[in-house]
Amino acid sequence: MIDEHFAGGTSPIHALDPRYRLAACLLLSLVAALARTPQTPLLILGAGLVLTVLSGVSAKLVLRRAAAVNLFIIFLWLFLPVSTPGMPLWQGLGLTVTREGVALAGLVTLKANAVFLCVLSLMGTIPAPALGRALTALGAPAKFSFLFVFTYRYLHVIAEEYGRLVTAARLRGFVPATDGRTYRTYAALVAMVLVRSYDRSQRVYQAMLLRGFTGVFPCLDRFAAGRRDVLFLGCVVALAAGAVWIEWLAGRGNV
């Protein structure tokens, strides 16, 4: 997302107002994250799949990002089934796999993938500057939005600076290894990146003050919501309400 691979496009999702997309993403992600039964995240996972298809993003990139997310989930499958107390499903090698552990790992998997698809299709398709303004429009503190925009802008600059330092070290004969010299070299590289980043931040701040910065970014673009945006958010609210209702029924044992 930080490289904005999905921000450019002409899909129906890209045409929606960023504020409404952000609100919808937060609502669906919150409902999925707080779910205690698998029915709710499964429903939102299906909605996330539909939104991802409508956004027209590259299936190859989506699968690559999904693989990175689920790489961490694999570790949960290795530990949760044998560390969660409950009814045994399998015993061997001194380990006991419980039904509750498997259910918990499955629930976490559904939640993670549901939130991932919602964030990718709704937030990942918003350019970073527009996302910052959408955060402010939804009530986030202006300083938080500034911090987000500046972090996005200068994260690439810091990465390039680190790359130049690593290249300079290799030209001087540095070969990474698992020894104290390597650790000291990398510590020095990180320290130099921090020092240069701080120095750059001071220069940027002075340049902004000289250009009359008063804490507000002037922007020529204006958000313009229409009936399509209202209808989209209404459908998302209805879906979230339905998911909460299903969660309530499942909690009572009626689903």
UniProtKB/TrEMBL annotation:
- List residues traversing the bilayer: 42-63, 69-90, 102-123, 230-250
Record carries keyword Transmembrane helix: yes
Q: Name one GO biological process term.
A: cobalt ion transport
Instruction: Tell me which stretches of the chain form a coiled coil.
Output: none
Kindly give the InterPro entries that the UniProt entry links to this protein. Answer: ABC/ECF_trnsptr_transmembrane (IPR003339), ECF_CbiQ (IPR012809), ECF_transporter_component (IPR051611)
Source species, domain of life: Bacteria
Q: How does it sit in the membrane?
A: Multi-pass membrane protein
Subcellular location as annotated: Cell membrane
Q: Is the keyword Protein biosynthesis assigned to this protein?
A: no
GO CC: one term? ATP-binding cassette (ABC) transporter complex
Keywords attached to this Swiss-Prot or TrEMBL record, sorted alphabetically, are: Cell membrane, Membrane, Transmembrane, Transmembrane helix
NCBIfam families, per database record: ECF_T_CbiQ
Output the PANTHER family linked to this UniProt entry. SLL0384 PROTEIN
* The name this protein goes by in its record: Cobalt ECF transporter T component CbiQ
Give the source species. Solidesulfovibrio aerotolerans
